[in-house]
Amino acid sequence: MKSSPSPRSPRSQWFSLLGFGVVGSTCLFAGLIILAAAQVTTLRCERVAAAQVDCEREISSFVEVVVEPLGNVQAASVGRVLPKDDRHDTRYNVSLLLEEGLHQPLGTFPSPDETKVRSQVEAINQFLQDANQTSLNLGQDDRYTIFLSGGILTIMGLLGLAIAGRTLFQMQAPEP
Asked: Could you give the angle at the alpha carbon of 107 between the alpha carbons of 66 and 140, nearest 5°?
């Protein structure tokens, strides 16, 4: 004699609905916030005189585009962002030396790829030293790593909400 599977108790269904609903909506919300933080930073420099370069930094995200004038950039160097603990690697950023003696990072998020950062620094310094070059456009794209983590959280959130919706539908279905 085969026994039919026993239906889940209403209490169990409520726990499933609340658990998957809360976790799913939290993951979805967090994933969307992370996706909104993805940015592309562009450094644009124009040579005004032989020894003067006027630069601006444009930060584009899903939410807005911000253009910040940087003024006369003197040099670029590799900045190191040390990890807070031993579990993380050192990260690097392009550090711009401005006329006022301030160091301004090019992008918002440091990169683990030192070689890429060094090549960007070399391109900026070469432009600053070569009076024959009239303009420089250099981009830093932070979207790929952000899309990965934000996308995974968003998908997990959608799956959690789908399971919660299925549970709710089963709870409302009439019993045979």
From this structure: 95
